[in-house]
Specification:
Helix 1 packs parallel to helix 7, helix 8 runs parallel beside helix 12 and helix 11 packs parallel to helix 12. The N and C termini lie close together (about 5 Å). The strands form six sheets. Strands 22-23-1-24 form a four-stranded mixed beta sheet. A four-stranded mixed beta sheet has the order 2-15-17-16, with helices on one face. A four-stranded mixed beta sheet has the order 4-5-3-14, with helices on one face. About 30% of the residues lie in helices and about 25% in strands. It folds into two domains: about 150 residues, Enolpyruvate transferase domain (UDP-n-acetylglucosamine1-carboxyvinyl-transferase, Chain, Alpha-beta prism), CATH 3.65.10.10; about 210 residues, Enolpyruvate transferase domain (UDP-n-acetylglucosamine1-carboxyvinyl-transferase, Chain, Alpha-beta prism), CATH 3.65.10.10. With about 425 residues, it is α/β, with parallel strands linked by helices. The longest helix is centred in the first third of the chain and has 13 residues. The chain binds ligand EPZ. The site of ligand EPZ has 26 residues, from helix 1, helix 5, helix 6 and helix 12. Ligand EPZ binds next to helix 1, helix 5, helix 6 and helix 12.
Length: about 425
C-alpha cells in the first residue's frame, strides 16, 4: 500500500489545473447504457472510481476504451443487467446503473451498497422514485431486484429526504424517466452542478429534460436515445481542495479549469475568514497574507456549503486561532478526520453533528491514517501546514477522487512524495 509523505512549511505558489469532476463522470458513464450507439466523453479523470465504473460497464456489456482523459463507451445490444457485490461494495456510485438498466432492459439486479465511514448511505429514495415510475422492487440476499412489465410510466415524484435532496437518487430517477412513457416531474430534486451536467448529456443523447439546476426537473419520455459526445465539467471539490491548500500555506495559487460560480459557498467562507479570492473566467486566484479569522460553516445541499469540502475547511480552521463551529447536515458522522487531525496537535471536539474547532497557532507533522476520500485530503492539507513530516497511510482512499494529487501539489512547491508503506 502507498502512503504520502509531506513536509510542512512551504508556501504554495503558481498555477494548478483541475481535472474533470468524478461525481459528474460516474453517473454520465452509467447514462451511456441508455444509448443505442457509442458515446465519447472527454475530460474524464483517471481515478480508481472511474476505473471501477469502467469494469462495471464491461461486466454489464459495453465496449469501454479509456485513453488519457477520453472515454469511449459502446453498449452491446445484449447486456447482463447485473451489478455485482464485489464492485458495488467498493463504490456506492455503482448504484446509478439501476435506472438506466431498468429503463433500457426492463430489469436490473444491483447489489445494495453497504454503508461507509461517512454514514449509512441508504438508497430508499432511489427505490421510491423508481417504484413511482412503475418498477417492481424486491430486496433479497443483499441485492435489489427491479423489474417492469412494459415501459415505465412518467409520474410526479417527491424525492426529498430527511437530509434534503439526494444527488444520485435524482440522477437515477432522471435517467430512468428519459425512456418512460409520458412526463415525469421530480420535486425536491438535487440541484448540484453534477446533476446539471448529467441532464445536459442526456439531452445531447436525445432526452427532453428541463429545469435541471432547480429543485423541479421535468422529463418528457422519448422512445430511444442515441450516443453523444460530451466534456465533463471541472471538479469543484478538487478545485476547492487546492484553494484551501493555498490558504493554509499562506501561499498564492491560481486554480485553473474551474467554474468559480460552482464554488460560491466556499469562496464566501474563505473571504469571511480573510482569504483573498479573485475570480476570473475559468479560474480563481487564492492568496493569503496575514492572520485569518475563525468562521462557522454548515454543510448543506447545493448551493449550500458542500459536505465534500467540510473536512478541508476544518483543516484550515484548525490552524486559525479562535473558535470555529462546523456543522454537518448531510452526513452527521462525517468526522473521521477529527481524531487524526488531533494527533497533529489540533484541538477539535465533537458535539453531535457539529465540530467545535479550537484553532491553534501551529500543528506538528505526525503519522496519520486516511479513512475516506475527503478526510484524507484534509490530512494532506494539515500536513502542508504542520511542522515536520506527516505520513498519511492508506491513501488508496485519496486515489479514488484525486488524480495525482502529490504531483499537482509539488508543482506548486509543496515538499510531498508518494512512498511505499
Ligand atoms: C453524492 O453522493 C456524492 N457522490 C457524494 O460525494 C456527496 O457527498 C453527496 O452526493 C452529497 O453531496 C457521488 O456523486 C458519486 P446523497 P450520494 O444521496 O448521491 C441521504 C465524494 O466524496 N440519502 O446526496 O450518494 C444520505 O444518507 C462523495 O465524492 C437517503 O437518506 O449522496 C445523505 O445523508 C462522498 N436516502 C443525504 O441523503 C437515499 O436514498 C445526501 O446523500 C439517498 C440518500
Amino acid at each position: 500500500m502507498d502512503k504520502i509523505v509531506v513536509k510542512g512549511g512551504k508556501k504554495l505558489s503558481g498555477t494548478v489545473r483541475v481535472s474533470g469532476a468524478k461525481n459528474s463522470a460516474l453517473p454520465i458513464m452509467a447514462a451511456c447504457l441508455l444509448g443505442s450507439e457509442k458515446s465519447v466523453l472527454e475530460g474524464v479523470p483517471n481515478l480508481r472510481d472511474v476505473q471501477t465504473m469502467c469494469r462495471l460497464l464491461r461486466v454489464i456489456g459495453a465496449r469501454v476504451i479509456f485513453e488519457n482523459d477520453r472515454l469511449e463507451i459502446t453498449p452491446f445490444s445484449k447486456m447482463k443487467p447485473v451489478a455485482p457485490y464485489h464492485l458495488v461494495s467498493t463504490m456506492r456510485a455503482s448504484v446509478c446503473v439501476l435506472g438506466p438498466l431498468l429503463a433500457r432492459l426492463g430489469s436490473a439486479q444491483v447489489s445494495l451498497p453497504g454503508g461507509c465511514v461517512i454514514g449509512a448511505r441508504p438508497i430508499d429514495l432511489h427505490l421510491k422514485g423508481l417504484q413511482a415510475l412503475g418498477a417492481q422492487i424486491q430486496i433479497s440476499h443483499g441485492d435489489v431486484y427491479a423489474g417492469t412489465k412494459g415501459k415505465l410510466q412518467g409520474k410526479e415524484i417527491y424525492l426529498g429526504g430527511a437530509f434534503g435532496s439526494s444527488v444520485l437518487a435524482t440522477a437515477n430517477v432522471m435517467m430512468a424517466a428519459t425512456l418512460a412513457h409520458g412526463v415525469t416531474l421530480i420535486e425536491n430534486a438535487a440541484s448540484e452542478p453534477e446533476v446539471v451536467d448529467l441532464a445536459d448529456f442526456l439531452n445531447k443523447m436525445g432526452a427532453k429534460i428541463e429545469g435541471h439546476g432547480s429543485h423541479l426537473i421535468k422529463i418528457q419520455g422519448v422512445r430511444k436515445l442515441h450516443g453523444a459526445n460530451h466534456t465533463i465539467i471541472p471538479d469543484r471539490i478538487e478545485a476547492g481542495t487546492f484553494m484551501v491548500a493555498a490558504a493554509i500555506t499562506k501561499g498564492d495559487v491560481t486554480v485553473q479549469n474551474c467554474e468559480p460560480e460552482h464554488l460560491n459557498a466556499l469562496i464566501d467562507k474563505l473571504q469571511q475568514a480573510g482569504v483573498s479570492v479573485k475570480r476570473s473566467k475559468g479560474s480563481v486566484r487564492v492568496s493569503r497574507k496575514g492572520r485569518l479569522k475563525p468562521i462557522d460553516v454548515t454543510a448543506l445541499p447545493y448551493p449550500g456549503f458542500p459536505t465534500d469540502l467540510q473536512a478541508q475547511i476544518m483543516a484550515l480552521m484548525a490552524v486559525t486561532p479562535g473558535i470555529s463551529v462546523i456543522t454537518e447536515k448531510i452526513y452527521p458522522d462525517r468526522f473521521m478526520h477529527v481524531s487524526e487531525l488531533n494527533r497533529m496537535g489540533c484541538r477539535i471536539f465533537l458535539e453531535g453533528s457539529s465540530a467545535i474547532v479550537n484553532g491553534v497557532q501551529k500543528i506538528s507533522g505526525a503519522p496519520v491514517m486516511a479513512s475516506d476520500l475527503r478526510a484524507s485530503a484534509a490530512l494532506v492539507l494539515a500536513g502542508l501546514a504542520g511542522e515536520g513530516e506527516t505520513h498519511v497511510s492508506r491513501i488508496y482512499h485519496l486515489d479514488r477522487g484525486y488524480e495525482r494529487i502529490e504531483e499537482k501539489l509539488s508543482s506548486l512547491g509543496a515538499d510531498i512524495r508518494r512512498a511505499k508503506e
